[in-house]
Design goal:
Helices cover 45% and strands 4% of the residues. It has 12 helices and 6 strands. Helix 2 (56-73) packs parallel to helix 4 (118-135).
């Protein structure tokens, strides 16, 4: 995978602005007098609207992103911001003795949220592994293992695929049932769960995390979740057919939510080349569908995710459609999506989720918003293009 020197320089410039943006939108660290220390909004709009509050997985990838920035640029602000996010994530884990089987589980948004999406909570446990590596604080690894124990005990359906979500306590009648708690559906995003299990096994030295459940998940992913086109899709558990409406509105099409990275991990564990074939099929499909402007779909969040698996698997994968020109076009589309703050200074440096050029006035309907999803993935991956230090989202 060749990336020009110009793109490498721009990647670092874009990364620095994203890191500054994350620091600028984070709640001030004023100790016990300000409860949401570490908080930041998930999306920011030109009209000043900021919603929704960041969910657990947003903190997970933002902390990895800021630690990437800290190691790349050496600015202590980035490490402080990441560790404040870590404090917030710790507050979401259920560690009191009154929750029985939910001991070790992780809540979705606040310490009071009575539910979680399983993959979102897994991302926090994954961040705990990375925070342990960074700080050498045993607490983070212990928290990751506690969540892993809960996951192995409570997190799978009868076929060995992770469930969509869990309720920890009865919900208020006004919000029950949760509209997106689709435990009748096997979400494609769970392919990314393989990454956490692999990293936990590496860091703990315990092979139980990559046992039969691990290969069962990887096999299920390529057998039932991958479509003939090469893309992955959510399927109904009972029929293995796609729902009439995608429960996630096409969010995990070109953005496989790190599932192909998970298959690289599975290949490292098993040597099964079927996993590499699945990755090749997916990434080839993504590049064959590349838009004229360099994007793979409306959201630019998929660009760093796809480029990351190319970087991590560059000696293993065979993807003819991923030409140097196609890669550079994708990168330029991502660079173009960085907000210059002209419509709202709180957006400056963040990545416009749908790639809206700064020169175009944002349209009604919210397309011109910056988002932590695309911003954090970008900040983790872009420095890899200009550095030999690959610290996060690795195999």
């Amino acid at each position: 995978m060749f990336v020009s020197k110009t793109c490498q320089i721009t990647a670092l410039e874009v990364s620095k602005k994203i890191a500054d943006w994350l620091c600028n939108i984070q709640a001030a660290s004023v100790g016990e007098y300000y409860p949401p220390v570490g908080y930041f909004p998930f999306t920011i709009y030109p009209d000043g609207t900021e919603k929704p509050p960041a969910q657990n997985w947003n903190y997970a990838f933002a902390s990895m992103a800021l630690l990437t920035a800290y190691r790349t640029f050496g600015d202590d602000r980035y490490e402080r911001a990441a560790l404040n996010m870590a404090r917030y994530m710790k507050s979401l884990q259920i560690l009191d003795p009154f929750h029985g089987d939910n001991y070790g589980a992780i809540r979705e948004v606040t310490p009071f949220t009575p539910w979680c999406f399983t993959r979102d909570a897994l991302s926090v446990a994954w961040a705990f592994v990375e925070l342990y590596r960074h700080t050498k604080d045993d607490e983070y690894l212990e928290r990751a293992k506690l969540w892993g124990e809960w996951f192995l005990k409570n997190g799978f359906d009868e076929e060995g695929w992770p469930t969509w979500g869990h309720e920890f306590e009865p919900l208020f009648k006004a919000v029950k049932p949760l509209p997106h708690m689709r435990n009748d559906v096997q979400g494609s995003f769970h392919g990314g769960s393989l990454n956490f299990l692999y990293q936990l096994a590496k860091e703990s030295g315990e092979n139980k995390w990559i046992g039969s459940h691990f290969t069962r998940m990887a096999d299920h992913f390529v057998k039932y979740i991958q479509l003939p086109s090469g893309f992955y899709a959510a399927v109904l558990r009972d029929t293995k057919q796609q729902p009439d409406k995608d429960p996630q509105w096409g969010l995990h099409r070109a953005n496989d939510d790190l599932g192909t990275l998970g298959l690289l991990c599975a290949y490292k564990v098993t040597g099964n080349k079927e996993y590499l074939k699945s990755i090749n099929k997916f990434v080839n499909a993504v590049f064959k569908d590349q838009w004229e402007d360099g994007r793979f779909e409306e959201s630019v969040a998929c660009i760093p995710v796809v480029l990351n698996v190319l970087l991590e698997g560059k000696k293993l994968l065979d993807i003819p459609s991923a030409t140097d020109l196609a890669i550079e076009r994708a990168l330029n589309a991502l660079f173009e999506a960085q907000s210059d703050g002209r419509f709202n200074p709180r957006m400056f440096g963040g990545i416009l989720e749908n790639g809206s050029p700064n020169k175009v006035e944002p349209q009604p309907g919210g397309k011109g918003f910056v988002c932590a999803r695309s911003s954090c993935y970008s900040l983790i991956v872009l420095p890899k293009l200009a550095s030999s230090k690959w610290d996060f989202l690795t195999v």
